[in-house]
Structure to design on (219 residues):
């Protein structure tokens, strides 16, 4: 069937019209993103993102703010807020994997600990209070890397050097067996405003050894 002049005219401007509509939608989306909370460099935290004492809310909203700001703040033990004020149940746990390594500022009593390159966090509550906060350090390396990391942190937390010196012998004894389960070693806990324990987990297949720091109320 022959195409009329009117039809040819419609076919000529129709693609251009679609393009204009698409561009318009992109512009609207761009304005929406620019005006959204997570696109701001330093957005103000809302009440469901930061607690009344400045601590991070241990909720999805709170961790969203941590991802933007790059800092997670938690107080444990003396002076800490109740679990409910942090958005957590009386007995339960909450975990988060951050989009990029963040800094953790941990307070216990009159002591403040700063931990850099934190990849993930797990908080546990018992009887309405924070019972522990576990920080997973980023980029797990070899066993030697993990031991060196713990050794470098020892002066900060006051860990007993004899515990660190015994780590290699513990791994050697493990290797003399035939277990396929990971080898787990701990150093600590420290004495101070918070009880801090380092955990090294050696995976025999790959040799990877992630390090975690567990903060608990001082005894």
């Amino acid at each position: 069937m022959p195409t009329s002049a009117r039809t040819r005219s419609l076919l000529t401007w129709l693609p251009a019209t679609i393009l204009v509509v698409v561009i318009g939608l992109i512009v609207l989306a761009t304005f929406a993103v620019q005006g959204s909370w997570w696109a701001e460099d330093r957005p103000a935290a809302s009440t469901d993102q930061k607690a009344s004492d400045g601590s991070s809310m241990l909720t999805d909203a709170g961790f969203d703010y941590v991802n933007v700001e790059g800092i997670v703040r938690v107080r444990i033990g003396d002076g800490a807020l109740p679990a409910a004020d942090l958005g957590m149940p009386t007995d339960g746990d909450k975990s988060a994997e951050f989009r990029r390594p963040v800094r953790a500022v941990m307070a216990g009593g009159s002591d403040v600990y700063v931990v850099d390159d934190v990849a993930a966090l797990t908080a546990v509550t018992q009887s309405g209070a924070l019972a522990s906060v576990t920080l997973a350090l980023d980029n797990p390396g070899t066993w030697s890397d993990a031991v060196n990391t713990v050794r470098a942190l020892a002066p900060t937390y006051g860990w007993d050097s004899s515990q660190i010196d015994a780590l290699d012998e513990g791994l050697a004894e493990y290797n003399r067996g035939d277990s396929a389960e990971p080898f787990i070693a701990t150093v600590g806990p420290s004495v101070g405003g918070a009880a801090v324990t380092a955990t090294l987990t050696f995976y025999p297949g790959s040799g990877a050894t992630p390090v975690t720091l567990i903060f608990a109320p001082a005894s």
Observations:
- Confidence is low (pLDDT under 50) at residues 6-11, 16-40.
- The helical segments are 5-34, 60-69, 143-157, 161-165, 167-175.
